[in-house]
From TrEMBL:
The lineage of its organism: Bacteria, Bacillati, Bacillota, Bacilli, Bacillales. The active site is at D38, E204. Keywords: Carbohydrate metabolism, Glycosidase, Hydrolase, Polysaccharide degradation, Xylan degradation. GO terms for biological process: xylan catabolic process. This is Glycosyl hydrolase family 43.
């Protein structure tokens, strides 16, 4: 690609990309997206249309630079335990290594989380032979705190199978809570020092309103659906996520990386396409929202493109809502 990356335009157009996890490594912005295949698929609530097979890593030297595709960094065929569907990944740097975390369905069709390591932010990444023991569901997002403790957040409803883990084991026919019950939250686990296993059993995160009441499952404008992301700003932890069926990116804040998190508001209003998925990163003095939409493919749910724009805070630490097409 030779065109400079402009706000609210696809970062690359030669492939479809989605679910961007952006990080600053070695003085540049690296983006870890899903790689949507350019094929015609019927959409269903199980997410079968998201049938991805590999990861390409993108980078930008700075805001407005050309976005570079560094090619294939990991392929499904090289992951011994994974059968299909390489969904939203994330990356982290620790112990002088780069780690790529990713979900996929195992041989029993159960979504699990895997990890692969490499010496460069662009890979190639070598996957561990097995999925992370005790892992389940989708959308891993890793946050390394200032004290170097690393936390992995994950979980997604419907095709992401989170409802099926309410008892701690996989129940294929389990459904989500009733509308007047607390919504399911994402899960969090602290990662071991080598980043390859969970230190403890994952715990569900509670998201509450300003009065301390849990957000209910029927509150689809605010309840957690998928795509967690955690960042820190002025000492507070911000958990942002997709509301799925109402297609928004919203956020909640806490003084503790394990929560509870208090719901605050909307970061990004709905984009073209069913899914919405994002990350938030600081580069130099500015903050950026990386997100995706299906505008380039004319609205095909399974052919998305990663975009970015500036994210701004108010003086009280709240985030200004972004209108994706109101430029
Ligand atoms: O890309 C496949 C799935 O769609 C992701 O894992 C979800 O977050 C949604 O964006």
């Amino acid at each position: 690609m030779t065109k400079p990356a402009k706000f609210n335009e696809p970062l690359v157009t030669h492939i479809y990309t989605a679910d961007p996890s952006a990080h600053v490594f070695e003085g540049k912005i690296y983006i870890y997206p899903s790689h949507d295949l350019d094929h015609v698929m019927e959409s269903n609530d199980n997410g079968d249309q998201y049938d991805m097979e590999d990861y390409h890593i993108l980078s930008m030297d700075e805001e407005g630079a050309v976005c570079v595709d560094h090619g294939e960094a990991l392929h499904l065929r090289d992951i011994p335990w994974a059968k299909q569907q390489l969904w939203a990944p994330d990356a982290a740097f620790k112990n002088e290594k780069y780690y790529l975390f990713f979900p996929a369905r195992d041989q029993d069709d159960i979504f699990r989380l895997g990890v692969a390591t490499g010496s460069s932010p662009t890979g190639p990444f070598k996957p561990e032979p097995n999925y992370i023991p005790g892992s389940f569901s989708i959308d891993p997002a890793v946050f390394v705190d200032h004290d170097e403790r690393a936390y992995i957040y994950f979980g997604g409803l419907w095709g992401g199978q989170l409802e099926k883990w309410q008892t701690g084991t996989f129940m294929p026919d389990a459904e989500g809570p009733a509308a007047n019950e607390p919504a399911l939250g994402p899960f969090v686990a602290e990662l071991s020092d080598d980043m390859l296993t969970f230190k403890d059993q994952p715990k569900e995160i509670s998201i509450v309103d300003k009065e301390g009441h849990p957000i209910l499952a029927g509150d689809e404008e605010r309840r957690y659906f998928e795509g967690p992301w955690v960042h820190k700003y002025n000492g507070s932890y911000y958990l942002s996520y997709s509301t799925g069926s109402t297609h928004k990116i919203v956020y909640a804040t806490s003084q503790n990386p394990l929560g509870p998190f208090v719901y605050q508001g909307t970061i990004l209003n709905p984009v073209i396409g069913w899914t919405t998925h994002h990350s938030i990163v600081q580069f130099k003095e500015k903050w950026y929202l990386f997100y995706h939409d299906s505008s380039l493919s004319g609205g095909a749910d399974n052919k998305r493109s990663v975009k970015y724009t500036e994210l701004k805070y108010n003086e009280d630490g709240t985030i200004q809502t972004i209108e994706p097409y109101d430029l």
